[in-house]
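Lecture 7 notes: from sequence to structure.
We start with the chain below.
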Amino acid sequence: MTISQGTDNQVAGKQVAESRCTDDQGELWTALRLRTQARIGLGRAGSALPTRHRLELQAAHAAARDAVHSPFDPDAVAAQLTGTSVIRVRSAAPDRLAYLQRPDLGRRLNPVDRAHLPAGEWDVVFVVADGLSSRAVHEHAAAMVRATTERLPSGTRVAPVVLAEQARVALGDDIAHTMGVTAVVLLVGERPGMSAADSLGAYLTHRPVPGVTTDADRNCLSNIRPPLGLDYETAAGKVAALLARARELGRTGVALKDESDDETMVERLP
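Predicted structure tokens for the same chain:
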């Protein structure tokens, strides 16, 4: 064999090895992408992303912006809660721009609406808040209210559902405290990202006090959005279990852990 033939064979062998390596990496990224919605292993076209992935990223960004700025439609949510008493309130933020620029205003009730909130001896109130994604609320909130209510123990006193516009999470403290409710479950549109613009969050707070209660005093379930996120049945089961345990402890937050997957916890539920 001549030297040139040896060199040619070495080059050919190297090319085959590189091809196999590339194929193996492609299979690896394909398998990983099936397990996450994160944008991984996208490849490149020169120094940029491939056109298809760049367009997908731009579309996701547009969907996130739309979710933040789309107006809340309380009538649409109320229509999905047929047979359920609802109350509509607004935060102290007069419009969407003020809401986005002044988070503090979204945590306080409009004084006029506060005066019209009924007071009673209720165990829990569900607050449906637009947050940063009205789309998430329109698509998932009513179903979560129904699924969770069905899992509450018999005799649980449930207050009318409150539909809150221009609302932040802490607005639930003001609402529950004003109504004299023991616990609040606030369902809110979560901040949209590049992989989800319709994610609903559920925040549980036991005996909240406006201006005193902090995020450390809450429990949160996030990414409620079937079929790609947490389904209603699972999320509702966790919320009901957390509410039951909160009654035992007399508090929520860092002291309360999600034990809904523990069979002994399920057996202790009323």
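Points to note: The first strand starts at residue 86 and ends at 90. Residues 14-21, 264-270 have pLDDT under 50 and may be disordered.
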